[in-house]
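R.M. (postdoc): so does anyone remember the format we settled on? I'll just put the structure tokens first.
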């Protein structure tokens, strides 16, 4: 916890109070591990603490779901079981726990890490990024001038640890539209190690029962979305991936080489295409990775360690 340059902790949600040397503090699971020089050669001087923001973690309406930036992963994990979503016919809620499980994190991270923190850290393997981009989430951003603006999550992340926030701006919330929540979905994730960071994570969504939206994350430096008016054939999907994702966009780190990430992207994309092309519940479909199909029971940090891997 190398934060020995901090001179003050200010409780505020007002971007107008931000100045050079500040950092927004939510759960702090990344900030405290990165230390005072997390954002460049100049040390951090103040932390702007969102702990007393009082924002409602999850708001459900007929238009969809609003996730506050301060919503913890444990609170997000509880979403599919909330009375407010019962009976709404939102099958895409199956993605929530699959993405939360992709943290493979300790109970401390489950209960402190936040939706906004995962988005603003902007790592390729961020599972909240995968969830929100895959469901066409739209971020609301507060600006220092007292205004706000919106930005699709798929565009909010611009690269490895890079995003669309300007200095002083604050991520307030993410809206998941009912139209995306109403779609049939499929999920695939692979890691090079048991309980490891995601090396490839894909989400498929079948809008209106016909239109495919495929979101590629973890394998790439930023989310990549492919949209098809109808379910493509296997060769059409391969061609579309060739055209949409250049070789230099595949991520390269200890969790997977670009060539492996690319190969697994094509493999998982075809599995998703086949699953969504088949009648729901069809047995015998290939399912690489873990956390899918959806399963009931289990709580955040419950210590499940029996995971199938398909590397």
């Amino acid at each position: 916890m190398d934060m020995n340059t901090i001179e003050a902790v200010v409780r505020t949600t007002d971007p107008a109070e931000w100045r050079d040397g500040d950092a927004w503090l939510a759960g702090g699971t990344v900030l405290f591990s990165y230390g005072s020089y997390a954002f460049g050669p100049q040390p951090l001087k103040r932390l702007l603490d969102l702990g007393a923001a009082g924002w409602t973690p999850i708001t459900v309406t007929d238009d969809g779901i609003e996730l506050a930036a301060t919503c913890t992963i444990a609170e997000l994990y509880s979403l599919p079981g909330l009375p407010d979503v019962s009976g709404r016919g939102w099958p895409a809620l199956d993605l929530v726990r699959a993405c939360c499980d992709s943290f493979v994190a300790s109970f401390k991270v489950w209960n402190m890490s936040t939706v906004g923190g995962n988005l603003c850290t902007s790592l390729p393997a961020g599972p909240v990024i995968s969830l929100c981009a895959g469901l066409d989430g739209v971020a609301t951003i507060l600006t220092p001038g007292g205004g706000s603006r919106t930005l699709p999550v798929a565009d909010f992340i611009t690269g490895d640890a890079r995003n669309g926030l300007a200095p002083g701006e604050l991520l307030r919330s993410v809206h998941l539209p009912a139209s995306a929540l109403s779609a049939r979905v499929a999920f695939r994730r692979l890691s090079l190690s048991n309980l490891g960071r995601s090396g490839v994570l894909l989400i498929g969504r079948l809008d209106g029962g016909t239109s495919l939206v495929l979101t590629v994350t973890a394998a790439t430096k930023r989310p990549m979305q492919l949209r098809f008016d109808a379910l493509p054939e296997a060769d059409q999907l391969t061609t579309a991936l060739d055209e949409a994702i250049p070789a230099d966009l595949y991520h390269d780190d200890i969790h997977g080489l670009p060539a492996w990430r690319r190969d697994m992207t094509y493999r998982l994309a075809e599995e998703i295409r086949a699953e969504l092309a088949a009648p729901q519940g069809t047995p015998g479909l290939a399912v690489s990775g873990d956390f899918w199909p959806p399963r009931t029971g289990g709580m955040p940090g419950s210590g499940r360690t029996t995971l199938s891997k398909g590397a």
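R.M.: ...and that's the designed sequence above, right after the tokens. Also worth knowing: The two ends are 35 Å apart (CA to CA). Residues 6 and 199 are 34 Å apart (CA to CA).
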